[in-house]
Design a protein that fits this description.
Length: 164
């Protein structure tokens, strides 16, 4: 058992670490280092089977809420989950959600302003339609570590092989 004084110090350290992690995931959409914490195995399994599990920080809480409300008619498919799994996923995405308070009408990361700005300049329109990409939602076609929440420039490789 920890003595009272030690325990207090330990709690302090754990708290400081938690604040650093929380800040890092919320600010990541605008910061230089585009690596997101994807530490929920349930989320990665349930929301990463048809496409990569998208980082919660890339949409605001309101948009995630709409997505979770409509899983039975999710982009032309049924992605509904058992109630307890759904609650767990909802808690994870809302806790990690970005600051954007407006609901994105199409519920797509790829339709947000920052996404368009970040990508339009850098990616030729023909690339989005190529067989290797097919859809802007197919993050992993270019961000080779997208599965792990890593969108850093170092792991970026456009189809065709050129790394940037
Ligand atoms: C049964 C397959 C399936 C499952 C499971 C699934 N999705 Fe999707 N999801 C899709 C399809 C299909 C699209 C549209 C992809 C496209 O346009 O290329 C999509 C698109 C999305 C998008 C928009 C991507 C963009 O920016 O264009 C988000 C966000 C999303 N899904 C979140 C989730 C979440 C959260 C879960 C888990 C609760 C989940 N998905 C589970 C099939 C699925
Ligand atoms: C066709 C290839 C391609 C696809 C698909 C793609 N991206 Fe990107 N992404 C890029 C390029 C190119 C950049 C620009 C990097 C830069 O400006 O340095 C970029 C930049 C980013 C950045 C900023 C990283 C940085 O270093 O500035 C993030 C975050 C990001 N993409 C997330 C996503 C997400 C999420 C998806 C899927 C919903 C996605 N991308 C789909 C090519 C792609």
């Amino acid at each position: 058992m920890l003595e009272q004084g030690n325990r207090r110090r330990f709690d302090g350290v754990a708290w400081a670490a938690a604040v650093v992690l929380a800040t890092a995931s919320v600010d990541a959409a605008t910061a230089g280092d585009h690596r997101y914490l994807m530490n929920d195995p349930t989320y990665r399994t349930e929301c990463g089977s048809c496409h990569v599990a998208y980082p919660p920080a890339l949409l605001g809480a309101g948009t995630w809420r709409e997505i979770m409300r409509g899983l039975d008619r999710h982009f032309g498919t049924d992605a509904s989950l058992p109630a307890s799994t759904e609650a767990q996923v909802r808690a994870f995405v809302e806790a990690g959600a970005g600051k954007d308070s407006a609901v994105v009408p199409t519920l797509r990361i790829s339709d947000t302003k920052w996404f368009r700005k970040e990508h339009r300049r850098e990616v030729d329109p023909s690339v989005w339609k190529s067989a290797a990409v097919k859809s802007p939602a197919n993050c992993g076609a270019c961000h080779r570590q997208a599965d792990a929440g890593d969108y850093d420039e170092r792991s970026l490789r456009l189809p065709g092989g050129e790394s940037r």
